[in-house]
Specification:
By secondary structure, the protein is of the alpha/beta class. It has 29 helices and 15 strands.
C-alpha cells in the first residue's frame, strides 16, 4: 500500500552548474536527501533502558528511572518521522505497507515470544485469580491496547489490592503502536496533498512541521490537564504522550543540518542534555507529578543530546573528542542499545513472576534477576529478531512481513484464550451471589452465622467464590463517588419519601455497610442516604490521592459540601460514620481532625454512631483463596498489623467524645483467640481485596450490626421505631 505523488509539470531547465562534492558518509542528521546511521543514538538507547531497569530493580538513587521511557519516545519520534519524510521527499511516496511490514517483523515477533512465555509461565507461577487477570493482560498487550487496560484498572479505587501485572511495561509499546497507526497514514495524506508542489520537499517538511508543532502543543496541554486530574490517564494515555514523539519529530523536520553552530556550543548542548537525563533519574521519584511539566526535562534533554550530533552545513563530524556522542557511540553502550528492546521486554516479567513465586524481594535480588534477564533477551534478539529483520524472503514483499506480524499477534492471543478459559472454569462462576439465599448471620456470640445447635457448617465451597468476591461490591448504584467528583448525588434508597432517614457517611470503608443499613432502614420504613467518597478521609485531613497523583483537593471540597448539606438540610434520624484510620500515622493529628468533623456533625442535632474500622489484611485475599481453596487457613493474616487499636473508638469509650456512640463487629471478623485473623469464617469469604469486606460478609453481619446499634441507644426496635415515625 502506498500513496504516489503525481509528477508536476515539466519546466525547461537551464544548464546546471557543476555538482558539489557529495556529502561525506559520516554526515548525518535529518536531511531529507539521505539517511545515515547514528551510533550515538544506539548508545542513547542504552542509557534509556538502564534507567528503566534500575528503577524497576529498586536500586537506590534511581527512583526517577521511569524517565527512560520518555527518552525512548523522543528517539522514536526522531527516527521514524525522519525516515517517513525522507521517503516522501526522495521517492514521492510513503509506502505504508512497507512501513508497517518493517515494524511488524522488527517488533512483534520478539514481543510474541515474551507474551507466549508469560502466558505459559503464568499458569505455573500464579494463583488462579491472578492468572485470569494475567491472561487478559496478554490479550491487551498482544492487541496493543495494554495502556488503556491499565488505565481502567488504576483509576478505579475499588480495584485496590491487585498485584502488579508482569506485562505492565507493555503500556509504552502500546502507546507507540497507537501513535504510528495514526501518524504514518496522516503523513501519507499530507504527501499526497503536496503532490503538485513546485518544491515538494520544502512543502512537505513545512506542512508536517507545522502540524507536528500544533499536535505537540495540544498534547502537552492535555498532559498538564490530566496530570492535575488523573495521574494514571496522564501517564499511560496515548494523547498525553504524543508531544514527546512530536518533539523528536521536530528534530527530524526543522533544517538543523543547514546551520553552522560553534563547536563549544554543541559540546555544551550535548553534555547538558545528558546531565538533565541523569538528574531526572536521581532526583525524580513516585511523588513527582508526572508527566506534566516535569517531563519537559528528560524530553528536552534527549532532544539536546540528539541535536548536538547533527552536523551543520559543510561539517563532516561533530562528535569531537569530548562530545557526549563520542561516549555514547562507544562499543559497550552500542551493544546494550542493540539489546535494549528485547531486554526491556524480558526484564519486568522476570521480576514480577519471580516475586509471585518467592515473595517480595530486595533490590540486590531484583538486580540479580534483571541481569539474568539478559540471557533470554539476547537469545530472542539472536534467534528471533535478527533473522526476521534481515531475511530477504520476508522483507522482499510487504505482505510477508505483515503476515509475520499477524502471526505474532495471533499466537499469544490463542494461548491466552486457552489458559484463561481453563482458569475461569477452575475458578467457577463469577455471577453475583444471591444474598437472599445466604444463611442468617449471628446477632451475638463468637460465631459468624446463626446456628441454634452450635454445630459446624457442612463442607463446601466458600461464598462468594474468589472470582465473585472481586466484584462483590455494595449494590449502591455507584454512589461511592469517584476521586474527581466533588459533590454526592442525592443517593436515596428504601422508602425515599419517608421523613425519616439514616445517613451513611464516610469513605469506602463506610460504603461497605450499605447493605446492612439499607435492610434495617427498610424494616422501619425509613430512607437510607449514602454520602460516600472513595479514598477520602472523613476526618478533616488533607491527603494525597494515589489515583490522582496529587493533593486530594476534591476530597476537601466534597467533605465541606457534604457536611454543609447535612447541617442545613432536614435533620436525619441517624448518622452512621466510618472511615479508614490509616491516612496518617500521627495519632494526635488524626484525633484533632476527627474532632473538627464531629463538631460540624453534632450541629445537625442527629444521633451519631461510629462504626469501628474493620481488619485490613494488606494482601489480595481472593487471590490467595483461589490458590488454596481447601486450605483457606493459609490465607490468614497478622492480627497486630491488620487490626491496630482504633484511637477514635478508644476516646469514645472513655467518654471524651460527647454525642457520639461507637460500635464494632471485629469480634466476629477476627476473634480474640490468636495472633492471626481469618480470611474465611464459616465458609464466608470476608474480603473482596486487601482491605474491604465483601458485600456477602456485610449482609451476614447485618443482624449483629443492628443489635449493636439498638443496644447503643441509637436505634429503637423495628416495631417501636415504625410507630414513632408514624407519629
Amino acid at each position: 500500500m502506498s500513496f504516489l505523488l503525481a509528477p508536476g509539470p515539466r519546466r525547461k531547465r537551464s544548464p546546471s552548474p557543476p555538482a558539489p562534492p557529495s556529502r561525506p558518509a559520516g554526515e548525518s542528521g535529518p536531511s531529507p536527501h539521505r539517511a545515515a546511521f547514528r551510533p550515538d543514538i544506539e548508545g542513547l538507547r542504552a542509557v534509556a533502558v538502564l534507567a528503566v531497569l534500575a528503577f524497576h530493580a529498586g536500586i537506590p538513587g534511581a527512583a526517577g528511572g521511569f524517565v527512560g521511557v520518555d527518552v525512548f519516545f523522543v528517539i522514536s519520534g526522531y527516527l521514524i518521522t525522519g525516515l517517513l519524510v525522507r521517503e516522501a521527499i526522495t521517492t514521492g511516496r510513503i509506502r505504508l505497507g512497507a512501513f508497517f511490514s518493517r515494524r511488524a517483523r522488527r517488533l512483534l515477533p520478539s514481543a510474541a515470544v515474551v507474551l507466549a512465555a508469560v502466558a505459559v509461565a503464568g499458569a505455573w507461577l500464579t494463583v488462579p485469580l491472578l492468572r485470569a487477570d494475567l491472561e487478559r493482560d496478554v490479550l491487551a498487550a498482544a492487541l496493543s491496547v495494554a495502556n488503556w487496560r491499565f488505565v481502567s484498572q488504576q483509576t478505579d479505587y475499588l480495584a485496590a489490592g491487585h498485584d502488579q501485572s508482569p506485562l505492565l511495561h507493555f503500556w509504552s509499546l502500546a502507546v507507540e503502536e497507537q501513535f504510528y497507526l495514526v501518524w504514518a497514514p496522516l503523513l501519507a495524506v499530507i504527501v499526497l496533498a503536496a503532490a503538485r508542489a513546485v518544491r515538494r520537499g520544502r512543502a512537505v517538511r513545512t506542512v508536517v512541521a507545522l502540524l507536528t508543532a500544533g499536535v505537540a502543543v495540544a498534547s502537552f496541554a492535555l498532559s498538564l490537564h490530566w496530570t492535575r486530574d488523573s495521574v494514571s490517564l496522564a501517564y499511560l494515555g496515548t494523547p498525553s504522550r504524543i508531544w514527546q514523539f512530536a518533539a523528536g519529530a521536530l528534530l527530524a523536520l526543522l533544517p538543523w543540518h543547514l546551520l553552522r553552530g560553534p563547536r563549544p556550543l554543541r559540546l555544551v548542548c550535548g553534555w547538558a542534555g545528558a546531565a538533565a537525563i541523569v538528574w531526572c533519574v536521581t532526583a525524580y521519584d513516585a511523588s513527582t507529578p508526572y508527566p506534566g511539566y516535569a517531563a519537559l526535562v528528560p524530553t528536552l534533554g534527549t532532544a539536546a543530546v540528539i541535536l548536538a550530533a547533527i552536523p551543520g552545513r559543510g561539517e563532516r563530524n561533530v562528535q569531537g573528542a569530548y562530545g557526549v556522542g563520542r561516549l555514547l557511540a562507544a562499543g559497550a553502550p552500542r551493544a546494550l542499545g542493540r539489546l535494549s528492546y528485547t531486554l526491556y521486554l524480558w526484564h519486568w516479567p522476570v521480576l514480577v513472576l519471580a516475586e509471585a513465586r518467592l515473595g517480595a524481594l530486595g533490590w540486590p535480588a531484583k538486580t540479580a534477576l534483571t541481569l539474568a534477564a539478559v540471557l533470554p533477551a539476547f537469545a530472542t534478539m539472536r534467534w528471533v529478531e535478527r533473522p526476521l529483520r534481515r531475511s530477504r524472503t520476508v522483507s522482499e514483499l510487504p505482505r510477508r512481513g505483515l503476515a509475520v506480524g499477524i502471526s505474532a499477534v495471533v499466537l499469544p492471543v490463542v494461548l491466552a484464550l486457552v489458559v484463561g478459559t481453563t482458569t475461569l472454569q477452575l475458578l467457577g462462576p463469577a455471577t453475583p451471589v444471591d444474598v437472599r439465599s445466604l444463611p442468617t448471620g449471628a446477632a451475638a456470640g463468637p460465631s459468624l452465622l446463626a446456628r441454634a445447635d452450635g454445630s459446624a457448617l457442612a463442607d463446601g465451597p466458600v461464598v462468594p467464590g474468589p472470582a465473585q468476591a472481586r466484584e462483590d461490591f455494595p449494590p449502591d448504584g455507584g454512589c461511592q463517588v469517584a476521586p474527581a467528583v466533588t459533590s454526592s448525588p442525592p443517593c436515596l434508597f428504601g422508602a425515599v419519601d419517608s421523613p425519616d432517614r439514616v445517613v451513611l457517611l464516610g469513605d469506602s470503608h463506610a460504603g461497605q455497610w450499605f447493605s446492612p443499613l439499607l435492610a434495617l432502614a427498610s424494616r422501619r420504613g425509613w430512607a437510607l442516604q449514602e454520602l460516600v467518597k472513595q479514598g477520602c478521609p472523613l476526618p478533616e485531613l488533607t491527603v494525597k490521592s494515589p489515583q490522582l497523583g496529587r493533593t486530594y483537593r476534591e476530597c476537601d471540597t466534597w467533605r465541606d459540601d457534604t457536611l454543609d448539606r447535612l447541617r442545613t438540610g432536614p435533620k436525619p434520624r441517624l448518622i452512621v460514620i466510618a472511615s479508614l484510620n490509616r491516612y496518617t500515622a500521627d495519632r494526635e493529628l488524626l484525633l484533632a481532625a476527627w474532632e473538627k468533623t464531629l463538631k460540624r456533625l453534632r450541629a445537625t442535632g442527629a444521633p451519631i454512631v461510629y462504626v469501628e474500622g474493620t481488619p485490613v489484611p494488606g494482601t489480595d485475599i481472593p487471590a490467595c483463596v483461589s490458590g488454596a481453596p481447601d486450605k483457606t487457613a493459609a490465607c490468614a493474616f497478622d492480627r497486630k498489623d491488620a487490626l491496630p487499636p482504633d484511637p477514635l473508638a478508644r476516646r469514645i469509650a472513655a467518654g471524651a467524645v460527647p454525642g457520639v456512640r461507637s460500635v464494632g463487629v471485629n469480634a466476629a471478623l477476627c476473634p480474640d483467640d490468636g495472633a492471626t485473623c481469618p480470611a474465611v469464617r464459616d465458609r464466608i469469604l470476608l474480603y473482596r481485596d486487601d482491605t474491604h469486606l465483601t458485600n456477602v460478609a456485610a449482609v451476614v453481619l447485618a443482624p449483629r450490626l443492628e443489635r449493636l446499634l439498638t443496644e447503643s441507644g441509637a436505634l429503637s426496635p423495628p416495631g417501636a421505631a415504625h410507630g414513632a415515625s408514624a407519629r
